[in-house]
Amino acid sequence: MRISEMSGKECRELLAHEGAGRLGCALENQPYIVPIYFVAEGDSLFCFATVGQKIEWMRANPRVCIQADEIRSRDEWKSVVVTGRYEELPDDAEHEQVRKHAISLFSRRDAWWMGAYAADEIRKHAGDPIPVIFCVHMKQITGLRAAPDAGQTALDIAQQKW
Ligand SMILES: Cc1cc2nc3c(=O)[nH]c(=O)nc-3n(C[C@H](O)[C@H](O)[C@H](O)COP(=O)(O)OP(=O)(O)OC[C@H]3O[C@@H](n4cnc5c(N)ncnc54)[C@H](O)[C@@H]3O)c2cc1C
After folding, report:
1. With 90 as the cut, is the pLDDT of residue 82 above it?
2. Which is deepest, 18, 60, 115, 132, by most CB within 10 Å?
3. Shortest-distance Cα residue to atom 39 of ligand 1
4. Centroid of ligand 1 to alpha carbon of 94 (angstroms)
5. What's residue 134's pLDDT?
6. CATH number for region 2-161
7. Whose CA is nearest to atom 12 of ligand 1?
């Protein structure tokens, strides 16, 4: 298996195409990671959630990470890691336009709100779920791709070795 770096353009194409990955945040040296949908546009990843642990942690520490991948087999895959900053887009006059834009992007996917609202069903709290639109501003983006060696798969090499 050969590993090579992906260009910035290839990384962005994967994010735009996949639209789902894992969001990592951390509080007091404790990492926390959950699957999430996003929409990539420019240097931003737009997401929709309801208030729960990840939102509370990102409000306290806006340094976050998103990982997404495309896995065809154990020796043929692409993986992109983004580090960036969480910004909440509150429901106020200042953020009205960007929120409308984010919702128009979300609306390209059926039932885009479902994951966020379903999560609230198991939370033990009184009251309605509190929706949150947020953006991850990408600071750094890296991507790696793996491809099988011609005529030899990673499995072949592992079997020879072990
Ligand atoms: C493919 C996919 C896409 C998703 N897209 C979205 C999305 O766009 N927006 C969104 O808000 N949610 C989405 N979810 C659900 C998301 O992964 C979280 O489960 C959910 O958002 C609740 O996270 P929270 O931090 O608010 O947890 P809380 O409701 O506050 O619950 C915290 C507790 O539940 C546990 N927990 C929470 N989520 C998970 C999990 N996924 N797996 C195992 N344990 C968990 C935590 O460890 C913690 O103990 C998606 C899930 C999947 C599988």
Report:
1. yes
2. 132
3. 34
4. 28
5. 98
6. 2.30.110.10
7. 116
According to the 3-state scheme, what is the secondary structure of 30-49?
Answer: EEEEEEEECEEECCEEEEEE
Atom of ligand 1 nearest to the CA of 37: 8
Does the beta carbon of 151 lie inside 6 Å of ligand 1?
A: no
Looking at per-residue confidence, does 124 or 78 come out higher?
78
Which residue, by CA, sits nearest to atom 47 of ligand 1? 32
- Give the DSSP H/E element, type plus range, for residue 72: strand 63-73
Cβ-count burial 126-137 (b if 16+ within 10 Å, e if not): eeebeebbbbbe
**98 contacts 105 by C-beta, under 8 angstroms:** no
- % of residues, the chain, pLDDT over 70: 93
pLDDT digits (tens, 9 = 90+) for 14-33: 999 999 999 999 999 999 99
pLDDT of 44 higher than 70: yes
* Any ligand 1 atom below 6 A from CB of 142: no
Distance from residue 119's CA to the centre of ligand 1 (Å): 6
